[in-house]
Specification:
CATH class of the domain at 4-257: Mainly Alpha
Number of strands: 9
Largest sheet: 3 strands, antiparallel
Helix content: 40-55%
CATH superfamily of the domain at 4-257: Hypothetical protein af1432
Shape: globular
CATH architecture of the domain at 4-257: Orthogonal Bundle
Length: 474
């Protein structure tokens, strides 16, 4: 340890090992310096312009702190090589993020999925080639590819006799090793750093968690799973609640969401018009020829600025200008309610589904009535649970469905008598025994109005009409 020291405004001094230092110096890792962790949130909270690079350094540091705590508190048996692999997984867990991260990933995923569905029948060889070109990797899958194909990173890992797959399967949880929860779980280095760092940069209080105490209460149960003592239940509840409120106030802030909806529309336009190409084949080529390092937020901002000045498509020009000039779409309707959480894609709150359908119907009616471009109307819905799985899901049902992975990532509480542990949701003295079965359901309707007095009057008129319609049909 101690090959490089970095001053960090969240953790103080971060020390990197030799291999970590070499990886942080690669162009592919340095690309993360120009990708904001929170997308367009800095247009609402000016301080939240920190990068995925600083976050990745923090996750590496916290992975090391957690390992140190486990070695102090337990008889965990990890070799220095294994410790290094977990630290590298923390350092590299975000290496595959696209410019503007989740907004781009969501837009591209929808675009390429639609492209695949509309692909016409061709000769077998041509069809296979077309299908390959139009597939899309999420950031975890792309991260795994980068570790294997980026010339710099792959050669560094090889020089230390480290298989890239041993690192990527920790952060993308493909046949995860024993202690993958260090980097990917309900209480992991990733989520802890995110909460602490966002709180520091936003000025909001939700990152005031008792990290030092939580680390002292880490244990390994009889099945070799990471858990906490019962004494840490309140601190763990506090962490989960803090994360819940942080998402509501920052990532899901009404203006942040409105701007990101506009961003997704612009990215879809860039993809549709072949201005950018994020297909798996093209990205793989860019990684191998080292041009991937230029794919960052700055590149996309330049494209958005160009569109904001191009009058050939007034609709997209207006949308792009809303980002550049910070004139976001306005919220004309919002409903929030706590309800029973969904446990699968097909198990959705009935009230949430009905309200979304009604909102869509009213949106189309009023858009046609007022003559406003449909692309300037956006519906956004979200359900926000506090934990990955609810307390009412029995283990037998979890194992028989797609829930065991979520169950494995839950915070676990140790029983001191027999050294076994159970998910925090099953601990009756935890708030999560009740709250984990709930989710906050949100429905919103945004409209991009002209930044004029006429636009303000139109906004008020539509807001009144849509709220009356939605309340009348409740």
């Amino acid at each position: 340890m101690g090959q490089k020291r970095i001053a960090d405004n969240v953790h103080g001094t971060i020390e990197l090992t030799e291999i970590e230092s070499k990886i942080t110096d690669t162009p592919c890792f340095q690309r993360l310096r120009n990708i904001k962790q929170l997308g367009l949130a800095n247009l609402v909270y000016p301080g939240t312009n920190y990068s995925r690079l600083s976050h990745s350094l923090g996750v590496c540091y916290l992975t090391g702190r957690t390992l140190d705590a486990l070695k102090k508190n337990t008889t965990i048996d990890l070799s220095p090589d294994d410790e290094q692999k977990y630290r590298l997984a923390g350092l590299l867990h975000d290496i595959g993020h696209y410019p503007f991260s989740h907004a781009t990933e969501d837009a591209a995923n929808e675009f390429y999925r639609a492209q695949l569905l509309t692909t016409t029948t061709q000769q077998e060889d041509d069809n296979k080639s077309n299908q390959e070109q139009k597939t899309f990797d999420n950031h975890e899958a792309l991260g795994a590819k980068i570790l294997q194909t980026d010339p710099d990173i792959s050669s560094i890992l090889e020089s230390y006799s480290i298989d890239p797959l041993e690192i990527s399967r920790i952060f993308n949880r493909e046949t995860p090793p024993q202690y993958a929860n260090l980097v990917s779980s309900d209480l992991d280095a990733d989520r802890i750093d995110f909460l602490l760092r966002t709180s520091r940069h936003s000025g909001l209080p939700y990152g005031s968690i008792d990290l030092d105490y939580l680390l002292t209460q880490l244990r390994i149960d009889a099945e070799n799973k990471i858990c906490l003592t019962k004494r840490a239940i309140k601190a763990a509840d506090h962490f989960l609640l803090g994360r819940y409120f942080d998402y509501q106030q920052v990532a899901y802030h009404k203006t942040v969401v409105g701007l990101e909806l506009m961003l997704k529309e612009v990215i879809h336009h860039l993809l549709t018009n072949d201005i950018i190409d994020l297909s798996s084949t093209m990205i793989k080529d860019k990684i191998q020829d080292s041009s991937w390092q230029s794919y960052d937020d700055n590149l996309f901002i330049r494209h958005i600025e160009t569109l904001s000045k191009d009058g050939s498509n007034p609709t997209i020009q207006r949308i792009a200008s809303s980002i550049i000039k910070r004139t976001p779409p306005k919220l004309v309707f919002q409903n929030e309610h706590l309800g029973e959480r969904k446990n699968s894609a097909s198990d959705v709150s009935t009230e949430h589904t009905l309200r979304k359908r009604l909102l869509t119907s009213e949106m189309r009616r009023i858009a046609e009535q007022k003559g406003i471009d449909p692309k300037h109307w956006k519906i956004w819905t979200k359900d926000i649970p506090l934990t990955k799985i609810g307390s009412h899901i029995p283990v037998s049902a979890s194992v028989a469905s797609d829930e065991p992975e979520a169950l494995d990532q839950a915070i676990r509480i140790m029983n001191d008598e027999n050294q076994t542990s159970k998910p925090i949701m099953e601990s009756q003295d935890s708030l999560m025994s009740v709250l984990s079965d709930k989710a906050l359901y949100i429905e919103r309707l945004y409209v991009l109005f002209p930044a004029t007095e006429e636009g303000i009057l139109l906004r008020n008129e539509i807001a009144e009409e849509i709220n009356q319609a939605m309340n009348r049909d409740e």
